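2024-03-11 09:14:02 INFO worker-7 job=invfold-0412 stage=load source=structure_tokens
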């Protein structure tokens, strides 16, 4: 369950959800959206709440919309630099 993006991380949570969506038996996109939203809590659930309210003006219609709503809050903006640094460290170790 994604709560604060620390444990699990955004990347790990996103991979687990993607695996489940690929292997689960969901009738349609609305069931997928419901599943993904229900795999959140705390801060993540609060971010999604305004668009989950049936009285709200613009509910989620796709999983991609849900992920795009969460990503700016939980993704690591320095991910590419960290991976490059790790790669450089590995190269220097050889």
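2024-03-11 09:14:09 INFO worker-7 stage=emit residues=94
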């Amino acid at each position: 369950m994604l709560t604060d993006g620390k444990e699990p991380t955004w990347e790990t949570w996103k991979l687990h959800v993607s695996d489940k969506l690929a292997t689960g038996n969901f009738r349609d996109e609305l069931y997928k959206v419901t599943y993904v939203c229900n795999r959140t809590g705390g801060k993540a659930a609060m971010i999604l709440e305004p668009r989950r309210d049936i009285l709200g003006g613009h509910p989620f219609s796709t999983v991609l919309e849900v992920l795009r709503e969460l990503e700016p809050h939980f993704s690591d903006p320095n991910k590419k630099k960290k991976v490059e640094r790790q790669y450089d460290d590995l190269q220097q170790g050889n």
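2024-03-11 09:14:09 INFO worker-7 stage=report msg="Residues 79-93 form the longest helix (15 residues)."
2024-03-11 09:14:10 INFO worker-7 job finished
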